[in-house]
Amino acid sequence: MNIFITIGSQEPFDRLLRIADNLAPEFPGVSFVAQTTKGGFAAKHIHILDFIPPAQFRKYIEEADLIVSHAGIGTMLKVLELEKPLIVFPRKAAFRETRDDHQVATMHAFVRQGYVAGAETAEEFRSAIGRFLSGNLRAAPAIAAHASAQLLHSIEEFL
């Protein structure tokens, strides 16, 4: 069982990595791999990759059983396109991980629509992994890689 964690390429996200590293021993037989940027966190129980070229990044997503991501829209859409189960753990302004709480709002919007599971705390993250491992957290139906002709036509008409 493989869990791939991605935090984006712009800023460290040590809080998520620390939580994942602390939880990893609770899930024997589960391998955690995290794509990170250079931060101050040294992992003990998860494998850290500082940089992954785009083709290799896609391969990690394709081969993972579960994806955990910050609420970066590009990453979320790629995971949904590949029809993978996704736990979104947003960056928060209160922890100086981002300038505002737009990631929290993004996560809640996607959770409401049934596309992802959301987690904002270590306990919620633990619970979401448990739901996945017990078969109660599945991938949403795949989304298209491109906008539909109908949507493009509607936008064209609007403009």
Task: Report what the structure shows.
The protein has six helices and six strands, in the order βαββαβαβαβαα. It has helices spanning 14-23, 54-63, 73-81, 102-112, 122-133, 149-158; strands at residues 2-6, 31-35, 47-49, 66-69, 86-88, 117-118. 30% of the residues are buried. Keywords: Endoplasmic reticulum, Glycosyltransferase, Transferase. It is found in: Endoplasmic reticulum. InterPro entries: Alg13-like (IPR039042), Glyco_trans_28_C (IPR007235). Belongs to the glycosyltransferase 28 family.
Strand content: 5-15%
What is the terminal separation in angstroms? Answer: 47 Å
The structure class reads alpha/beta
- Discrete helix count: 6
CATH top level class name: Alpha Beta
Number of domains: 1
Global mean pLDDT: 91
Q: Report strand order across the widest sheet.
A: 3-2-1-4-5-6
**Into which percent range does the helicity of residues fall?**
25-40%
CATH architecture heading: 3-Layer(aba) Sandwich
Overall spatial form: globular
Say which CATH homologous superfamily is assigned.
Glycogen Phosphorylase B
Q: What is the strand tally?
A: 6
* Sheet having the most strands: 6 strands, parallel
Q: H/E series, N to C?
A: EHEEHEHEHEHH
Task: From the alpha carbons, calculate the radius of gyration and give it in angstroms.
Answer: 16 Å
Low-confidence stretches: none
Keywords:
6-stranded parallel sheet; 39% helix; single chain; Rossmann fold; 159 residues; alpha/beta
Give the topology, please.
Elements: E1 2-6, H1 14-23, E2 31-35, E3 47-49, H2 54-63, E4 66-69, H3 73-81, E5 86-88, H4 102-112, E6 117-118, H5 122-133, H6 149-158
Parallel strand pairs: 1-2, 1-4, 2-3, 4-5, 5-6
